[in-house]
Design a protein that fits this description.
Bound molecules: S-adenosylmethionine
CATH superfamily of the largest domain: Vaccinia Virus protein VP39
Structural class: alpha/beta
Oligomer: single chain
Strand order of the largest sheet: 1-4-3-2-5-6-8-7
Number of strands: 8
CATH class of the largest domain: Alpha Beta
Radius of gyration: 21 Å
Number of helices: 15
CATH topology of the largest domain: Rossmann fold
Strand content: 5-15%
Helix content: 40-55%
Shape: globular
């Protein structure tokens, strides 16, 4: 596979206390899957575009007399294309294999992991679980991105298999681009705030849909005097997140089991920074407005709300929309397409936010030197620094400020 030797090996990831260990064969399996993923996206995927341009698009034009007009029309025709079928089946399989490999690795050591998580969670006020929280349909009804048990299933008492598998398997899909602690998004936010808003010193931070805390921890690290509250509905993810944060030496973060559709335990205006990372695209159209209205209520005047996501479809050509929409139909991500076609600013405005306060900005994750080594020249980022799309707003600040990428 071309250029795969330049990829890092899975075992460069930082090993916190509850991180699953791996033997030689397990590392080799994860690296093979990582390389296969990169090979598919760099070497095989361009052929799907060629198949579209040379075969499928001309067919549509011949049939209708017009250029393709929607990603749905493109998908319906591409479904019959052999090259697309091959790439799609392989990509789906790398996802299934990632989960199988991660799960098998975790299950082989689950008693040990559970034991460490139990010890870290015992009588610790930084973990607040609530048996009354009901997992909402957007999480309960689908094994999101083919992940068995989603983020919340427990198959025995205090099981954390789903969380440990997610933590170790993410690398396979991202090939190290999220950093040694899979926290590139949170690092990007912290870096953007540090460089663009050095005087902004939030005292209370809320991260919604935190899963195992990957992107909440950099905020706790960057604002050591702040109290960070990270909420999720998924009990095993929160227990694992808490043990993970503790072993990484972060004590100013509290993990709370709560449904973001009902955050009535927190007072109006009680947070000055509210973040989400890769969260909005896992919400149904029913859930999203309820959560946004809560964010509006909880955000203090002058406070910042920031959502990291992949870019919206608006402005993209139909092929690009179709290929980005693959996850909706083939990767168990039913909310992905419906969310990316929204006019998000309008949705926020409908939930009470002032459009004048909103801005879009690119937030850049730093390349992790622990994984990729030191840059050979100043400013070199190996072309690998992912830029996250962020939709943000400064509440009541009429933020006509031009936000800069950092
Ligand atoms: C893609 S994950 C987010 C990843 C995470 N923010 C990170 O930085 O790694 C989505 C998370 O949102 C949680 N979630 C979905 N709906 C929720 C809700 N209504 N309230 C709280 N958490 C929710 C899921 O349980 C899941 O853990």
């Amino acid at each position: 596979m071309s250029n795969s030797s330049a990829l890092p090996s899975w075992d460069v990831l930082t090993k916190h206390n509850v991180f699953p260990v791996a033997n030689h064969d397990e590392v080799a399996r994860l690296n093979f899957l990582t390389h296969l993923n990169v090979h598919l996206s760099s070497q095989i995927l361009p052929g799907v575009k060629t198949a579209y341009e040379t075969q499928v698009k001309p067919e549509i034009v011949a049939e209708t007399g017009e250029e393709p007009s929607s990603r749905h029309q493109v998908r319906q025709h591409m479904l019959n294309n052999g090259y697309f079928q091959m790439w799609s089946a392989l990509r789906r399989n790398t996802m299934e294999m990632r989960h199988q490999a991660a799960r098998a690795q975790v299950l082989g050591q689950i008693e040990n992991i559970v034991d460490k998580v139990d010890k870290a969670c015992h009588n610790d006020a930084n973990l607040q679980l609530d048996d009354n929280v009901v997992v909402p349909p957007n999480v309960a009804m689908v094994d999101i991105h083919c992940q068995p048990g989603c983020y919340y299933q427990e198959y025995f008492e205090n099981d954390v298999t789903v969380a440990a598998s997610y933590d170790l398997g993410l690398f396979v899909t991202t090939a190290g681009l999220l950093g040694a602690l899979s926290d590139g998004g949170g690092q990007g936010i912290a870096n953007w705030l540090k460089t663009q808003h050095p005087d902004f010193k939030p005292k209370r931070i809320l991260d919604i849909g935190c899963t195992v805390g990957h992107n909440a921890l950099p905020l706790a690290e960057h604002f050591p005097d702040a109290q960070v509250i990270a909420v999720d509905v998924a009990r095993p993810s929160l227990r694992y997140a808490h043990a993970r944060a503790k072993s990484l030496g972060l004590n100013n973060i509290q993990f709370v089991q709560a449904n973001a559709e009902d955050l009535s335990q927190y007072a109006d205006g009680s947070f000055d920074l509210i973040t989400t990372s890769m969260f909005l695209h896992e919400l149904s159209h029913q859930a999203m407005p309820k959560i946004l209205k809560n964010i509006n209520r909880l955000l203090a005047d002058g406070g910042l709300n920031l959502h990291l996501e992949q870019p919206q479809y608006a402005g993209m050509d139909v092929y690009q929309q179709f290929i980005r929409d693959w996850d909706t139909y083939f990767n168990n991500e039913p909310y992905w397409g419906p969310m990316h076609e929204l006019d998000l600013k309008q949705v926020f405005a409908d939930c009470g936010f002032d459009p004048q306060d909103m801005f879009d900005v690119g937030v850049v994750s730093k390349v992790d030197e622990k994984i990729f080594g030191k840059p050979k020249s100043e400013g070199e980022d190996y072309g690998r620094s992912p830029v996250w799309n962020a939709l943000g707003l400064w509440k009541g600040k009429n933020a006509k400020i031009s936000e800069k990428v950092a």
